[in-house]
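Bumping my old thread because nobody answered last time. Still need a sequence for this structure:
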């Protein structure tokens, strides 16, 4: 792409969800654009700083307002937070001077993209979830290119947000969801990080980078049964490990480093997780038989419905996420190899693979 050193600002955070796909695309962009320089801008207190540090990409944290669609006094305070984030974004962009901003959602991206648009910076956004998130709705009118994880989302994409209207927006491209290369080609020797043995199957429990109290409570309530039949690897989320029990077959971690995570994901016999799209994409890439507990009252319920309709996972809704049912579905998967194989096959076929390569090509195309 010529001798110019291109600079790309990566934006996202608050949870691990918007971070992993952005890092996966950055990994591919290094191959397509020699010498490309990155800066990742995330929230000050989210888990993204740790995740980005593993890649060697420079990181800057700013405060991000949460733009709620319901009445809350916090909305008043967040108006001032948002104004401060606009100032912070302007300072960062003026100093870094990116050629392009790439984001996969998260409210931290909104002020960066707004200021970036005013400065004439190209913007590419990726929509992960089936339902278009508010953060992306606020950025859509400014995007030079849009990609989506689901085909239906690309077809039904919003033509404007609540604050902005635009006669024409970029035609969204359905590509699937980016996954980092370690998930597809894991270093299985990193399983030594967990100190596991080969006598029992592995149950991987993922509460996300920020933790899921519902999942953590289920593990606590079924602890004795789980550790008697599985080696349990449990990502609890920062400050969310409320389980006081100890057992040789129980291995809790607030946040699992990505290398060991990729290894244990591929070695796990069953995975218990939320229905965030980054997690679903990784389960799809690894072809894992999974039990999905979507966050109640959120966009995850729509993601989970897609999995359920495709028979790609066993989904436990809020009323079904009780100890007896939880143990029942674990037993069904464990002792029914054909069901396990079908779940693995269906989730593998859920979305297109190699999305990170396709999105990197879209980004590179915007830089020409």
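Sorry it took so long. Here it is:
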């Amino acid at each position: 792409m010529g001798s110019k050193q291109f600079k790309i600002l990566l934006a996202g955070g608050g949870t691990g969800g918007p971070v992993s796909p952005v890092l996966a695309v950055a990994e591919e962009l290094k191959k397509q654009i020699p010498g490309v320089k990155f800066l990742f801008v995330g929230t000050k207190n989210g888990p993204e700083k740790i995740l980005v540090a593993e890649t060697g990409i420079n990181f800057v944290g700013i405060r991000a307002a949460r733009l709620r669609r319901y009445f809350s006094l916090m909305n008043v305070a967040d108006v001032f937070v948002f104004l401060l984030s606009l100032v912070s974004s302007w300072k960062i962009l003026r100093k870094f001077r990116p050629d392009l901003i790439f984001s996969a959602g998260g409210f931290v991206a909104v002020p960066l993209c707004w200021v970036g648009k005013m400065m004439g910076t190209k913007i590419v956004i990726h929509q992960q979830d089936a339902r278009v998130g508010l953060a992306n709705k606020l950025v859509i009118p400014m995007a030079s290119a849009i990609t989506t994880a689901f085909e239906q989302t690309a077809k039904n994409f919003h033509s404007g947000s609540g604050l902005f209207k635009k006669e024409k927006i970029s035609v969204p491209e359905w590509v699937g969801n980016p996954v980092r290369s370690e998930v597809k080609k894991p270093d299985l020797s990193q399983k030594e990080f967990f100190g596991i043995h080969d006598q029992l199957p592995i149950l991987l429990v993922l509460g996300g980078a920020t933790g899921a109290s519902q999942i953590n409570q289920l593990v606590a309530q079924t602890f004795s049964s789980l550790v008697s039949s599985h080696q349990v690897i449990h990502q609890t989320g920062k400050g969310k490990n409320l389980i006081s029990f100890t057992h040789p077959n129980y291995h809790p971690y607030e946040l699992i480093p990505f290398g060991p995570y990729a290894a244990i994901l591929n070695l796990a016999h069953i995975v218990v997780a939320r229905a965030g799209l980054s997690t679903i994409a990784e389960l799809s890439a690894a072809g894992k038989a999974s039990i999905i507990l979507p966050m109640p009252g959120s966009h995850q319920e729509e993601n989970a419905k897609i999995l359920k309709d495709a028979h790609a996972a066993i989904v436990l809704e809020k009323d079904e996420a009780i100890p007896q049912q939880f143990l029942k579905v674990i037993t069904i998967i464990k002792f029914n190899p054909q069901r396990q194989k079908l779940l693995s096959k269906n989730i593998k076929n859920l979305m297109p693979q190699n999305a990170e390569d396709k999105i990197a090509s879209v980004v590179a195309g915007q830089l020409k």
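The longest strand covers residues 37-43. Let me know if any region looks off to you.
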